[in-house]
């Protein structure tokens, strides 16, 4: 029987990692409208990408899973970013005839626990474990394995896990070099920004789901830097005119890891302010990189 591989993708970084997985057979992308200009990205993927056999667009993750449920007899392997929680447990139980895999999205894959705060979190964890699941991404009894970049880090966090761990085709840094769909997630406008910057010092602000109200106070400390703001992918509105103290505004759909890599190649000093982003876990030991964690209250 022909192998059919299906990937549910709801963020730009998920797309990047999904294209770094070895598969045999056809590849289908189910892109979800969970990030800035997702519809435009979908159209660009259909038009430009050579990676996929089929690409579909869904307004919600629930709609994507409904498609999987309706087509489960035709699907060999399903790749998703998360299996945690009661809702996911119910969905995965309905498609357990498919081989289901988790693929890395960020720091969440290496956390010891995904427990929610308070007594409700404790209660949810109790029932989740009661049904034979473990409290980490990939811990569902319906998941066959996990694709990760750092096996040792996962094993340190979950020494008792018996879940099979699989490697991506190449390392994260190697995939940054070979990623064939870079132009979709770092479009002509963003590449133009890189070419226009003449300053050798750059300040990049990565927002959370909201924008830090006092960011201008921090910017004043870096008056001689070129200042760039990158909205979180889940911010769907345009913010071009929101903050006048930034020289450039990136698109929420840009894969920021690619942009950071370009900054570190081209410029002498790079300062990145953020709210605990996972993106920087892939950029360790760069002398020219300084990071600032903003505690937004």
Note down, in words, how this protein is organized.
By secondary structure, the protein is of the alpha/beta class. It has helices at residues 12-18, 38-48, 61-70, 86-94, 118-130, 151-157, 172-178, 182-185, 188-196, 215-219, 256-266; strands at 4-9, 26-32, 54-58, 77-80, 99-103, 143-148, 165-167, 201-206, 226-230, 248-249, 269-274, 289-293. It folds into two domains: 4-177, Rossmann fold, CATH 3.40.50; 186-293, Rossmann fold. Helix content is 31%, strand content 20%. The strands form two sheets. Strands 3-2-1-4-5-6-7 form a seven-stranded parallel sheet, sandwiched between helices. Helix 1 links the parallel strand 1 (4-9) and strand 2 (26-32). The relative contact order is 0.13.
Number of domains: 2
Share of β-strand residues = 15-25%
Largest sheet composition? 7 strands, parallel
The outline comes out as globular
């Amino acid at each position: 029987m022909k192998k059919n591989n299906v990937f549910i993708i709801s963020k730009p970084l998920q797309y990047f990692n999904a294209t770094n997985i070895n598969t045999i057979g056809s590849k289908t992308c189910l892109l979800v409208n969970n990030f800035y200009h997702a519809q435009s990205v979908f159209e660009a993927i259909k038009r430009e990408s050579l990676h996929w056999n089929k690409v579909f667009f869904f307004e919600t993750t629930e709609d994507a899973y409904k498609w999987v449920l309706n087509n489960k007899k035709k699907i060999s392997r399903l790749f998703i970013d998360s299996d945690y929680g009661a809702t996911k447990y119910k969905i995965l139980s309905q498609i357990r005839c498919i081989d289901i895999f988790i693929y890395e999205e960020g720091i969440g894959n290496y956390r010891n626990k995904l427990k929610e705060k308070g007594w409700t979190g404790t209660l949810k964890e109790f029932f989740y474990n009661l049904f034979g699941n473990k409290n980490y991404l990939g811990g569902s009894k319906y998941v066959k394995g996990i694709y990760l970049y750092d096996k040792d880090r996962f094993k340190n966090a979950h020494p008792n896990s018996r879940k099979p761990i699989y490697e991506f085709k190449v390392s994260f840094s190697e995939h940054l070099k070979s990623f064939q769909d870079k132009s979709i997630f770092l479009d002509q406008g963003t590449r133009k920004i890189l070419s226009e910057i003449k300053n050798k010092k750059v300040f990049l602000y990565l927002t959370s789901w909201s924008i830090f109200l006092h960011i201008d106070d921090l910017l004043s400390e870096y008056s001689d830097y070129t200042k760039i703001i990158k909205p979180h992918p889940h911010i769907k509105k345009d913010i071009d005119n929101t903050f006048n103290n930034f020289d450039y505004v990136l698109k929420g759909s840009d894969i920021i890891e690619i942009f950071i890599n370009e900054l570190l190649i081209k410029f002498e000093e790079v300062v990145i302010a953020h709210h605990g982003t996972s993106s920087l876990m892939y950029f360790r030991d760069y002398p020219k990189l300084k990071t600032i964690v903003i505690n937004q209250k």
